Amino acid sequence: MITRRNLAPLALSASLAPATLRAQAWAPNGPIRIIVPFPAGGTTDILARLYAQRLTETLGVSVVVENRGGGGGSIGADVLAKANPDGQTLLFHNATFSTTTAALEFAGRAPHLIERDFAAVSLGASVPSVLLVHPSVPATNLTEFIAWARAQNPPGFYGSTGPGSGMNLTGETLKRDGNFQMEHIPFRGAAPLVQDMLAGRVQFGSDQLSTALPHIRANTLRPIAILSPGRARLLPGIATVREQGFPNAELAGWNGFFAPARTPELVLVRLQAEIAAAARHPALSARIEELGGEPGGNSSAEFSAMVHAQIAGLRPLVRSLNMRVE
After folding, report:
1. What is the pLDDT of residues 178-237, one digit of tens each?
2. Do 192 and 116 fall into the same domain?
3. Is the residue at 326 inside a domain?
4. What is the span of the domain harbouring residue 158?
């Protein structure tokens, strides 16, 4: 699990003189656009706007967020894949990037490949995702939830942020490993999914902890498991899916920056240095921690290795589920 402790040396390296000197060789020549591949209001959108505000101050140009939701995040990602590799357009995505890409690859419909079409710039934050149920569901953990789900006739509904998304993969994994049925309802992002969960039209879903916390504290949604490898700092009493006997459903949560694959190294160096400095800024890092996350700022190489390892681990799971997204 990525923590502030193991990110600190990586963030510190971004401030070393050689990187700083090389970074000064490039400066943005106009507004920078950050593509968020989900509707406004979700965790990824909130974090992107926090970074955009700080980067506007440090880069001296306007940094704006553009929401391009749909396709489990693949529509917004494809916008970046086709953008000019000049540092003026970035993508701020989350772990759904790995799941959606793996699912689309298996279906033979991938418009892009993570390893080929994108340059990882830096981790923005690691934020765990939490599995949630509507209060009408009499469950406080996965065992109780699965017992309830098995008894439903007709089956209940689970929601996700789109075909191939993290929750879609989690839902299908739990259905297989827990031997129960639920109908999948895809949404364009976490915000509309949560609205339907609050209304009781969808009984089961997930969200990143930061945007789920207000609903958990208000008892309008109930947490039953943490998807990340370790327990969430702000929900220490909620066990992980692995602790509850469902290791295949584990998914490390992250939110991070990408550029088009052909972006020059000097551009990537400057962007990574600025993102790392923003992650260390006291106000921004404190806000991320308030949201239940851990600030990022690691090196491009470290972030790239993390994402590539995640998607490599997801590909066999997608194949085993015969997960053919429509």
Report:
1. 999 999 999 988 889 999 999 999 999 999 998 899 999 999 999 999 999 999 999 999
2. no
3. no
4. 129-249
What are the two backbone dihedrals, phi and then psi, of residue 37, each rounded to the nearest 5 degrees? -85, 30
Q: Determine how many CB atoms are found less than 10 A away from the CB of residue 30.
A: 9
At 31-49, the pLDDT tens digits run 999 999 999 988 999 999 9
Domain boundary among 206, 224, 249: 249
Q: Which helix (H) or strand (E) holds 145?
A: helix 142-150
Q: How far apart are CA 252 and CA 250, in angstroms?
A: 7
> Measured between alpha carbons, how far is residue 70 from residues 53, 86, 171, 223, 253 in Å?
25, 25, 19, 26, 20
Which of 249, 284, 304 marks a domain boundary? 249
Per residue in 76-106, pLDDT tens? 999 999 999 999 999 999 999 999 999 999 9
CATH code of the domain covering residue 300: 3.40.190.150
Q: Is the dihedral of CA 231, 235, 239, 240 positive or negative?
A: negative
Percent of the chain exceeding pLDDT 90 equals 83
The pTM (predicted TM-score) of the whole model is 0.87
Residues 6-25, buried b or exposed e (16+ Cβ, 10 A)? ebeebbebbeeeebeeebee
- In sequence order, the 6+-apart residues with CB closer than 8 A to the CB of 161 are 38, 72, 73, 96, 167, 168, 186, 187, 188, 189, 190, 193
| Total of domains in the chain | 2
